[in-house]
Write a structure and sequence with these properties.
single chain, 141 residues, mainly beta
Length: 141
């Protein structure tokens, strides 16, 4: 297992079904952990939310966000048409579906570990489109 402290820069864009757009850009200190066949990038946001990206394969990345009793686990997979995911709340679980339209990541663990990740996806609850999302993540030791 290899573990590195990294600077994480994340930019997201969300366009809801009614065409409202929200942009988000922040920098955090986090960790990159290379364990077996997977690489994890994790950090905490200002409000204490724990965020973890798990790079599984070239075609598959998992995102977990945990705040208090709320936990979102999303899987992005370019080989699947749609992937069923879960949003856990104190009141029960909500089923969400992702459809990944872009997934690129580069990881360089030589000398100074660094890389980037780009994910574009559509998020559905049932058959209702909740929004279209773009995530851009850069990290560097």
């Amino acid at each position: 297992m290899e573990k590195y402290d990294v600077q994480v820069e994340i930019t997201t864009r969300q366009e809801t079904h009614n065409k409202q757009v929200e942009n988000y850009h922040r920098k955090f200190t986090g960790q990159l952990v290379n364990k077996g066949e997977a690489t994890y990038i994790r950090y905490r946001e200002e409000d204490g939310t724990r965020v973890m990206f798990k790079l599984v394969t070239d075609d598959q990345v998992m995102l977990t966000r945990t705040t208090g009793q709320h936990r979102t686990a999303l899987q992005f997979d370019t080989t699947a048409t749609k992937v069923t995911n879960h949003y856990h709340t104190p009141y029960g679980m909500i089923e969400l579906v992702t459809r990944t339209t872009r997934l690129d990541h580069v990881l360089d663990l030589t000398k100074q570990p660094q890389g980037h990740l780009a994910i574009d996806y559509r998020l559905y609850q049932g058959i209702s489109l909740l929004g279209e999302y773009k995530i851009r993540l850069q990290f560097k030791a």
